[in-house]
Amino acid sequence: MTVRYANLIGVAENGGVEVFANRGTSGIDGSTSTAVGSALSTDKLVTLVTGDMAFLYDRNALWHNYLPQNLRIVVLNNHGGGIFRMIEGPRSQPELRPFFETDQRQTAQKTAEDMGLAYTLVKDEAALAQALASFFDASAGPQLIEVETSSPENYDVFAQYRKAVQGIRLG
Predict the structure, then answer these.
(1) How many helices (H) and strands (E) are present in the chain, helices listed first?
(2) 80: Cβ contacts below 8 Å, ≥ 6 apart
(3) pLDDT digits over 26-39, tens only?
(4) Neighbours of 110 (CB within 10 A)
């Protein structure tokens, strides 16, 4: 969903931000690995914005001796496959919850600790703003912010935003 968010808000057109997207089966294969590889190939800060399922699926990308100091990760954790609430077909299926979403209670905290990333959990907008104040400090080393969210609430906010920007030309 994060690449769709970036596209919807026109992030690539704002301030020269470069957006790279990795799409595999179901959009989760190798996203973290791609970000680590990108960070290893540049001195610029590299920020991965990813969902919980993609992060958990590819967390071994962080399991090596060369963790890039310029790597920043934001995990949007709605505890399981909320993208399917955003897609018209699956959203309207009675099987949405039991078969499309993957209910999981894991967080990224242990992975961050095990792999040597500074970890911050945020549960509201004020805490996120506070965490972001130092997140992009180039000297701070690899970091991970986990944003805990609700899948149904995510859909409601996304639907409201999409309706608000419908017809507005970005850029």
Answers:
(1) 8, 4
(2) 52, 53, 101, 102, 103, 104, 151
(3) 666 788 999 999 99
(4) 11
